[in-house]
Write a structure and sequence with these properties.
about 40% strand, mainly beta
Length: about 110
């Protein structure tokens, strides 16, 4: 599995748009992504698409809540330096016409 990296500077309420299958997340302060009425990660483009999100800082963490529209996660996660969560896109998932489904995490 080859993961091409994209560096993302994120802000509170932001939605991640997967442009590569690995995104290293940087923030100016501790933030929570997305808003409950939107998606924290933009929909995938094909079944089986993978996405690895990696934190880059111990203090300026990135939080992802598990109750967003198009993610299926085993609870919330806060990504600090080298913390990661790995998703796969499932367009047949019953949650809002598809979902990013958590495969694993290192936290």
């Amino acid at each position: 599995l080859v993961l091409k990296t994209h560096a993302d500077t994120v802000t509170a309420g932001a939605t991640i748009t997967p442009t590569k299958n690995r995104h290293d997340l940087t923030a100016a302060s501790a933030v929570t992504l997305g808003a409950l009425s939107t998606s924290v990660i933009a929909d995938g483009s094909l079944d089986g698409q993978t996405l690895l999100l990696v934190g880059t800082h111990d203090t300026n963490t990135v939080r992802i809540d598990s109750d967003f529209q198009n993610v299926v996660m085993n609870g919330d996660i806060t990504l600090a330096k080298n913390d990661a969560i790995f998703f796969v896109w499932d367009s047949d998932n019953d949650k809002d016409s598809g979902a990013w489904v958590e495969v694993s995490r290192n936290n």
